[in-house]
Input
Amino acid sequence: MNENDGGSLARALAEISAATDHQALDRAISSLLPAYAIKSAAYMGTGITRNESEPFLAVTYSSDWVEHYKS
Output
C-alpha cells in the first residue's frame, strides 16, 4: 500500500460516514469498486433501522444474492 492508498481509504471512509441516506451510501460503496479494483462490496449496519430484525444493507451484489444470504 502506498501513501495514496491510505488517502483514498480515508476519503472513502469519510464519504461512507457522511452519507445521510441510502442513495449516498450506495454511491460511496460503489465508488470503492474501481478505486480498489474489486468486484463487489458490502456495508451492513445492525441496530440502526426501526426494524431491529432487519440489518441495514448497502451492497453492490444483486438483490437475488442478498435474499439468498438473508434467508
Q: What stands out?
A: The chain has one domain: 3-70. Residues 49 and 56 are 6 Å apart (CA to CA).
